[in-house]
Amino acid sequence: MGAAGAGVDGLSLRIATRGSPLALVQARAVADRLERLVGRPLPDPVVVRTTGDLAVGVPVERLAGQGAFVKEVQAAVLDGRADLTVHSAKDLPSETPDGLVLACVPERGDPRDVLVGSTVGRLAPGAQVATGSVRRRAQLAWLRPDLSFCELRGNMRRRLEKSRAVGAGVMALAALVRLGQEGEVDEIFDTLTMLPQVGQGALAVECRWEDEALRSLLVRADDADAHEAVRAERAFLGALGGGCTLPVAALARRHDGGLRMEAMVASADGHVLLRAAKRGQDAEALGTALATELLDGAGGRAFLDRRT
Hints:
Blueprint: E1 15-17, H1 21-38, E2 46-47, H2 51-54, H3 60-63, H4 71-78, E3 84-88, E4 100-104, E5 113-116, E6 128-130, H5 134-143, E7 148-150, H6 156-166, E8 169-172, H7 173-178, E9 185-188, E10 203-208, H8 212-219, H9 224-240, E11 248-255, E12 258-266, E13 273-280, H10 283-297, H11 301-306
Parallel strand pairs: 1-2, 1-3, 6-7
Antiparallel strand pairs: 3-10, 4-10, 5-8, 5-9, 11-12, 12-13
Helix pairs in contact: 9-10
């Protein structure tokens, strides 16, 4: 692999990551790809505990949009303890911190959500579903107004256990697949029923902007279509306001030489749900235009104005 590793022999490749089983699997997947490119093993990951990891009793919705699961990991790169980070793209705030760049989005996993423990059709009237996501709650409430919800936090094992105990829980399909637990799935939601979170199923690899050699290497591990889709979805979120805690969702995909993107904004109780779709060539422009359409054309701004 001498040719593949040309020019990168002395390049430091320490990966910062959270310490959850899923985060470590995701970091390992990126490390495997980089090891094939440079022809040598990477050092052990730099494991960082984040605010989100420590705030185990705090509902997920209170942490949404704040970078609670990424800030400390990003800091490890900025202060030199590590050289790059691997995140779940859905955990990233819409703005990248000064000094960092989103350098690589590898091939995206399946972005859809799943139900564990039951199917929607088998849920009894008034059944409880475990999920801390306001996005998932709103879309399920729109589909089944009779349902009630409870919080779902912790690693995948705890989430699966609680979902089975309650009767059902909603999770990301990509996470279960990466952990080899796709056999736990009872129903996969189509995106017309449950539009996914911005960046769901994708990994985001950040490094320091000044590290040109590392950025050049990461480009070789990048999936251009996945990266463009994530850029469009993040632009949509940014246009809503980086700390938006409303139920919002977006999914962009390559279509007919450009991008086709679907997006959703809902009231917190799920009684009103607005969806729109748009095609375009420029990722950021598409995401921004779709946010404007939902906020101003469809009336979603009223939800922003009423939030507390």
